[in-house]
Amino acid sequence: MGLARRRFLKNIGLTMAGAWMIRIPALGRAIDQSGGLLLAPQRDAAWLASLFERGQATTYLKTKNELQYIGMPVGGIMCGTVYLGGDGRLWLWDIFNQNQEGIEPKEVEWKEAVPGQAKKVRSRDGACYIQPSKNIRPLDQGMALQLKIGQETIIRPLDEASWPEISFEATYPIATIRYVDPALPVTLTLEAFSPFIPLNEDDSGLPVTLLSFHIHNKGKVPVEATLLGWLENKAALHHAKENLHERTNTAAGGKGWKGVLAAVRAKDAAGAALQQSPDYGNLCLAAFDEKAVIHTQLELPISAATFSRRRSEQSVRNINQKLTAGVMVKHWLLPGKDTRCDFAISWYFPNLSFKDIQGKGRYYANQFADAAAVMGYVRHHHTRLAGDSRLWKATWYDATLPWWLMERTFMNISTLATTTAHRFQSGRFYAWEGVGACEGTCTHVWQYAQAVGRIFPALERDTRQRVDLGIAMMPDGGILFRGEAEKRPAIDGQAGTVLRIYREHQMSTDDRFLRQNWPQIKKATQFILHQDRNGDGLEDTPMENTLDAIWDGEIAWITGLCIAAVKAGGIMALETGDTDFADICNDYVEKGRRNMESQLYNGEYFIHQPDKVKGRSVIGSYNTCHIDQVYGQSWAFQLGMDRILDKEKTLSALRALWKYNFMQDVGPYIAAHPGGRPYALAGEGGMIMNTNPYKEEFPFGVKDAWQLGYFNECMSGFEHQVASHMMAEGMTTEALTLTRAVHDRYHAAKRNPFNEIECSDHYARAMASYGTFVTACGFVFHGPAQYIRFAPALQRENFKAPFVTAAGWGTYTQQQQGHRGEYQLMLKHGSLSLRLCCFEQANPDTVVVKMGNRQLPATFVEEDGQVTIRLDEAVTLHKDETLHITITS
């Protein structure tokens, strides 16, 4: 075998032919917790320590005015957007297939855009960052509690105005809301969520919101507690006409539940065309209690009479008349006792479509005929759906990493439960960049979004195969970067897609995905190779990129990304036995790395080398310090690949970003460099996209291109990408500080914590935040090779974190003391087959592997402080089983 192939074998060792030692680069150790790289400017020691402390769940309070902007998505993934407000009421209700741009299409004034001037800002430019949306209620929904204590009756709506204190625990996917009034004899707690189960995209994609209430009688006398929920019928919200249609509320129910189906119908044949409207459908309000009392027509406002027992089978109203359903559950509580009341709201609006896109209808319409059918399924499977969702929440937050970090790195996956993301009836995943803005599941944006491929890998595998390697693939291997909505590839999207393909292969249980798609994957990789016009390993073909321009020359962040992609392509070639192509890829990688380090490194950071003919007459980053300059190396860490760039030069580049681009207060910078969009404001910290350390007059080549505004912005997806890379390289304090800056920008006192904004709301690139969790764990997984690796970047002596693999998820724990290390993988859900495990421990002497009381025969090797263990026979863990490894040195 040739030298090039041997190097690839040593690097990955995942050929099915026999080599089993997997060499993964050790995570960097550039600094320790004390902050070896000084923050600029230096933070105080207490603040720095708080970055690493476990802390507690972020809890927002009414008394601190922190509830008004909260909008946690609590509908199923790819089912529209329903927000949970800070006081427990549901709002926004973007479920009617309007395909609007932004959660609230609007234009606001940014008075600080330019000193002395105001600038109009649209939804896609950050309107909700300047002026956060709140209280958008196209339909009336709410809950109320009635208490009877002896002869006294107390009625309390569950809204912010009615309670002295309300707390909101921001632990996506399940929020906990506590209604606090010391004068009442009961405590009331709400858990609100939609079923969310990693690896189960179907049951996580149900159009339903669950409202689970817990009532405890803390007093000394019995209490009659009644919960009443109501929901206004707004089916066909936008298209129903007074003279043609009418709304109906009809009693509905099944085993274990009672409710009301809220629908719309035509008065005669002339109105039947309504069924084709995007907002045609129905909703259902129910309680999971066969003793529930229903009201098909509830009169508001709430009073004691509202809680009286009465029932009707159907109510009909004209379109201009309000029609509200009610469901009521009563419990008798003795002192010290408690009860749980489960309510749910489901919806069914299947008429989804987009112009010029191959797909229509909603995926949930394959299984359900209406919202009542959704309710019946959820009730029948409630124990499993709610149990697995609660188990995931408990597993995710059962970690030694800081609470705030676990929240911020995960909560952006809630973007899937907004109208950024959809799933057609065919099963195809389709998404905007942000809500209603920039179509086509854009490759150069979605390639940053690490969360989906790790939590719902089947969605990503299908998108790679169905869209990127299918609908969007050109004859020469180029991938249209917006699918059928585009006619061009984007070079960064192309490279990122090849890297995602390798991730999707890793997050599979076997190699069928890779082998089935290898011819197309090879073409996609060859396309990248062909963009190197002068054959120096540095991509130099002018092509679209994520900053919405065509750049000429040899650009560090693009060439590095291409090198990483070709490396991934070469590894996949080896796994399929295509050794000749693996050698071609390896030659490109070695040449590209060598030339990138010699030609594009200026002694401090990596730059953009201008085209030899055009020079700086066209837009580019040139000698500026660009946020993505070593993005290819960042991607390599996500996949467990060996280095593609020299460690010291890469660290120097990251230090330059910290020195020049990160600012505790971006205010002075954006005031001096106007033109960008408001994704960070004065008084807030963040990392600027591009800075000009050498004070060049025209640092970006041109002076009047509209894209120049991007260079002066803080876009959180890019910031998360850098944070994940810093974490992998040992710049732990910097990684945490940068992530915390984003977290603080989205504090509920300022704006919605669940809505990271770029080009519109709930922007996909922000799901890069999950990558920081991946590198904090030093997690690498390769399902077909039955391989897993953990190398925590912090808290190595006592570390605990969740993990998700191709078919199962659970908890990893690591304890290191003296010359002994204990490593455990406890599976909580699904299954996990392993033959190779890798942990960090120097100079191992003995390794003992056990599953339960059974010791498993194994051998091990050590390289660079990493111990790779090979079981004589693969083992499969199932729920509640633990693999226990003891390493002594």
UniProtKB/TrEMBL annotation:
Alphabetical list of SUPFAM superfamilies matching this protein: Six-hairpin glycosidases
InterPro entries linked to this entry: 6-hairpin_glycosidase_sf, 6hp_glycosidase-like_sf, GH116_catalytic, GH116_N, Non-lysos_glucosylceramidase
Coiled coil: none
Glycosyl-hydrolase family 116 N-terminal domain segment(s): 71-384
All residue ranges annotated as the Glycosyl-hydrolase family 116 catalytic region domain in the record: 492-770
Domain of life according to the entry: Bacteria
Gene3D superfamilies given in the database record: 1.50.10.10
Name of this protein: Glycosyl-hydrolase family 116 catalytic region domain-containing protein
